[in-house]
Amino acid sequence: xxxxxxxxxxxxxxxxxxxxxxxxxxxxxxxxxxxxxxxxxxxxxxxxxxxxxxxxxxxxxxxxxxxxxxxxxxxxxxxxxxxxxxxxxxxxxxxxxxxxxxxxxxxxxxxxxxxxxxxxx
Length: 121
What we know:
alpha+beta; globular
């Protein structure tokens, strides 16, 4: 559906998506309290366009730096991207694309930063 044209970062994430259990693992201090996710952000926002939640697959978290160590522990480190890092894609067909920020507090080292995007027709 999308072809990657340029990726100057090379570090992205498919691990942290829509599962409440992921937040339970990452934030045991919340004791199972519901936590908003990037997927739930998309489901709420795209619902206004008629996109049903079960039509939203896993999220692709551009620039997010998650990894497993050899002991099986999941790590969320600050992004390896820097100002000017680019991830450029081209749609191969008509798409509805949603953009949201990860709601995992550890994903940006506890610091929110803006990410610019541009859509070119």
